[in-house]
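User: Is it possible to get a 3D structure for a protein together with its bound compound? The compound here is threonylcarbamoyladenylate. I've pasted both below.
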Amino acid sequence: MTQDYARAVSLLKAGELVAFPTETVYGLGADAANPEAVARIFAAKGRPADHPLIVHLPGVAHLDQWALNIPAAAWQLAEAFWPGPLTLILKRAPAVPYAVTGGQETVGLRVPAHPVALELLRAYAQAGGGRGGLCGIAGPSANRFGRISPTDAAHVHEELGEAVALVLDGGPCQVGIESTIIDLSRGNDLPPRLLRPGHITPEQIAAVIGVLPELPAAGQDGSTPRVAGSLDAHYAPLTPMRLVATARLAEVLAGLKADGKCCGLLAHTLQKGLVPTHSLRQLPDQPEGYARGLYAALRELDLAGNDVIVVEAIPSADGWAAVADRLCRAACGSGTA
Ligand code: TXA
Ligand code: MG
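Assistant: Yes, that's possible. Here is the predicted structure of the complex:
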């Protein structure tokens, strides 16, 4: 075990917070079986205590310590996608503290694919971490509540500063947006439900379990999926952010410029001759590359002193659903310093 892992393990055992990289975003970790440690996560993030946390497990062998009545579909999905960016919502085992489930009877579980996260989880298990047979690390995204998720160790320092005892640096995250969440806690009579779109798509899930998960109700524009019961405003920059169709970019930027506004532009198609008044970030014109760079680009545009961040609207094609969800929420929560 290297020095960093050894230190991380002893901090976690002592109920302290350790941030760690995953393939999706950085997580703010605490021993998930220790309610006092979990309380520290809520305090550091400024997150309401009724918001459940995802528990990261060292491997699929730990699943039935944390969950009850696990349906066959959950085992199939775990087998197919773990380690990976898929969170399963299942009935919690009686020993799982309510602190981590936000008072609910269900628990969110995943095995992350990042080598640093896996090494940490395995080291924690080997060192006897956890309580009462439960070993897992609770880990919400390591940002202040409602803000942009960190995809780099430096972002975690920016977000949480001294509140976190140690940040394990695993470089930039490969996926860049949070895991797909699927609810399998409703028993065998009801279909699984997609709670948050992500890198793993409903079609990939259907290919494994033979049923397409129930999708969240369409948003106000009729196209954007929403997470039932969750807050609309999330992943948001402090600078007001607007989504603008490609065809209207020139006109909107010219109008803002005429009003003396400093504008940042986040584009994914080449914008010839189109110059924002301040800063331009260009992301790839395909969903995986776009997702990978999205939060870092938003963070930079947020810190660049813009009055407005103009985001070129993305295609409404299927592969873009997870990115569309994040952009919609970011625009909704933006500008609320
Ligand atoms: O990719 C990810 O999932 C990242 C990395 C760090 O693993 N984590 C993450 O955690 O995004 P967080 O806390 O920022 O988002 C977790 C989401 C929340 O919207 C929460 O409501 C939902 O998961 N969630 C967790 N447990 C749940 C449960 N028992 N029932 C319903 N939703 C749950
Ligand atoms: Mg989050």
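The CA atoms of residues 128 and 135 lie 8 Å apart. Residues 219-229 have pLDDT under 50 and may be disordered.
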